[in-house]
Design a protein that fits this description.
alpha/beta, seven-stranded mixed beta sheet, 9 helices, 29% helix
Amino acid sequence: MGYLSKAAAAATASLFLTLFLVSHQTKAQDFNSLLHNNNATNADEVVVARKLAGGKCNWFRGSWVYDASYNPHYDSNCPFIDPEFNCQKYGRPDKSYLKYRWQPSSCSLPRFNGLNLLQQWRGKKIMFVGDSLSLNQWQSLSCMIHSWVPNSKYIFSPFRNGIASVTFQDYGVQILLYHTTYLVDLDSEKVGRVLKLGSIRGGNAWRGMDVLIFDTWHWWTHTGRTQPFDYIQDGGKLYKDMNRLVAFYKGLTTWARWVDRNVDPSKTKVFFQGISPIHYEGKDWNQPSRSCKGETTPYSGTSYPAGIPQSWVVVNKVLSRIKKPVYLLDITYLSQLRKEAHPSVYSGQHSGTDCSHWCLPGLPDTWNDLFYGALFG
């Protein structure tokens, strides 16, 4: 197996990224025009990808509306919430972040009905595949369903061989979580921990599911002591590092090939969670001295100053080439606006300030409202 110097690897990555981004013809400042300009060709392409089959509304364009009468689907007593996300239990003094509901621009979301989900998907398996943002959404959905059938028997199975599950026994419905930081393989070898951009052996555990909801990005940006790999393998070569967007693109392309080769659309519906944003740097919303800590209201502008994350561009690039149907839960823009919805310092398992994950109940419940709408139309 060959090795490339860091300089050679960087040069190769830089060239690849340049060609990739130029070919995509998308700039960060174009994000809001993609979202809001109905006459733009690129916007039309993006909107079409987000519609329900036969639908006329893009649920991912809209605004957050404060509604004093609005209540979460469940409360902090839900048995499935990790302390990491249970902001009310761990001292968050305000509750206004629980009173915002997402209102699409020209339609309304179907109301989430956990009993209907259980009845319609009796005996089915729904699996989230991804990192701690998948954990966030998995716990949210489990709590949302449980709130509809609080007296129904369930089995909660903690992680075993990377898989956790909640089974609603009266309906035979399993809500599973497969933990993987990159979707592609991360292996321990003689040289160290190797991130393999072209390999997905873990995909064997994803087979036989009725619904798959994938997520990855959060860990692709980690460096230094929090980076869980020593080398990146691309083809037959090992790299000490490479441009992370390039690595993400290559890894996600491997995932897309897995979907094309292994998913039967008549048996399995496939979703991709989209890019969940972070709010560590207030300059992203024109308040450079701030972070999510202490924030109590969403960003109120009609567009988000930081614009589109380049990771969003990568996801859309890969999904535009996939052959099998994959529904993108395009949560990026609506989540960018929710700078106040993170655990911040109100977490039972996270030291410091957490501006990556989300309080439960909270924003991931809206992600699942969108998932429910896409599932049942």
